[in-house]
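task queued by scheduler; priority normal; single chain, no ligands, no partner chains; default sampling; output format set to structure tokens
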Amino acid sequence: MFLPNKSTPHIVRAAAVTTTSYVAGTVVGIDEANAIGIQVTIVKNNETSFEFLVESSLDGGVTFGQQVNLTASGGTTTLAPNVYSITGASLAATQVVTFIVTPIKGDQIKISVKSTGGTPTGTVAVKCITGWV
């Protein structure tokens, strides 16, 4: 269960054309939460995929660290940078996608967006809301 700390989402990125490099949205305070709900609105062209990086800061936004995936095998845990990716072919012309990222800890959050392949003329808007799970 996701319990929001705020009733109004943070606007991280107004609808804007994507690029083939990550572009960070507005840095948002985490509000002492351990999870964020992220809602993206994608209006696609022929992009192959849309990718999202979620980074957090422990020092007031001076330094951001990317989330990682953990994979355990044979007593060794491997860390790999985490990227949230959605395939363009699986999307309607205009698609709203929501996902929850947990656990997240720090005092600031940064969400960056890029597209891959095709002609990057599609737009992406990003909102997030902080909460507890």
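post-processing summary
- The mean pLDDT is 92.
- The domain at 3-132 is CATH 2.60.120.680 (Jelly Rolls).
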